[in-house]
Amino acid sequence: MRVVAVIPARYGSSRFPGKPLAPVLGRPLVAWVVDAARRAARVAEVLVATDHDGIAAAAREAGARAVMTPPDCPSGTDRVAAVARTVAADVYVNLQGDEPLLDPRDVDALARVFDHEPDTRMATLSRPLADPSELARPDVVKVVCDGSGHALYFSRAPIPYFRDAWGLAGPGPVPPGGVAPRKHLGVYAYRRDALLAFARLPEGQLEAAERLEQLRALEAGWRIRVVPARTDSVGVDRPGDVARVEALLRARG
Q1: What is the DSSP string of 92-104?
Q2: Is the pLDDT of residue 195 over 70?
């Protein structure tokens, strides 16, 4: 089974224009993500899907293949689908271009699901949310799953909400015996037919409300397999996040 990793990297981020080229310890942010993807054993090739010549050059310098995509792709997954129309593979792993701390072993775990679960069309990563303060942060997406490890819902709001323990005061510590909230890591994998079908789905109302593209699939009745991740991944959402990520990269050596 041929697995390729695709990193969608557009220039015009509303919160951080030019983010993929932002210097992180002297290298473009996108180069760190390419490094992580290239270390994944199950990935045959790493591609960067972009609408900007400078990002394409940085991708090639880091060892990835750059694929130019339209600037008006409505989501990262739509940009990955544009790559899938010209680059053949069985499974496409959509890696966020602002996650330089991604663990390559988690990419491999996500890819292996498709080896052993023939009915799985789409999968993603999550891990227990260790920092209680992240529950209320809308930049941190939460996910709840059913008993078989499939997503029930993704939200920027705190889910599950422990009504009796938190009441009107809002999110606090998880009560004893309560299910641990899970943080969604925005890494997806698709079989080729599912990826192309996703790009044809209309935007859903929940997707529009939360600005979470994975809700488009849930609204259409799809099942999304949620795979436990080994390590957390800290993203660069705003310029102020760069210093935090640099400190974590230094700590990893």
Answers
A1: EEE--TT-TT--H
A2: yes
- For the chain, what are the domain ranges? 3-252
5 has which bridge partners?
46, 93
What is the domain class of 3-252 according to CATH? alpha beta
Quick one: which of 230, 199, 215, 4 has its CA closest to 95?
A: 4
As given in the structure block, the two tokens for residue 122 are 């789409």
Q: What is the pLDDT of residues 49-68, one digit of tens each?
A: 999 999 999 999 999 999 99
What is the distance between the alpha carbons of residues 246 and 249, in angstroms, rounded to a whole number? 5
pTM here is 0.92
Intra-chain end-to-end CA distance of the chain, in Å: 33
Alpha-carbon distances, residue 199 vs 21, 80, 145 (angstroms) = 27, 9, 24
Q: Which two tokens stand for residue 218?
A: 């849930």
Name which of 22, 104, 9 is nearest 60 in CA terms: 9
What is the Cα 234 distance to its own chain's centre? Answer: 11
Dist CA 41 CA 31 (whole Å)? 18
What the block records as the tokens of 106 is: 């988690």
- 């400190």: which residue's tokens? 247
CA–CA distance, 213 with 204 (Å, rounded to integer): 9
Identity of the amino acid at 222? W
| Ramachandran angles phi, psi of 143, nearest 5° | -140, 145
| pLDDT single digits (tens) 130-154 | 787 888 889 899 999 999 999 999 9
> Directed axis angle between helix 192-200 and helix 76-84, to 10°?
130
8 Å CB contact between 186 and 176: no
Q: How many residues does the structure list for the chain?
A: 253
Report the alpha-carbon distance of residue 224 to residue 179 in Å, rounded.
Answer: 20
Structure-token pair, residue 76: 């990262």
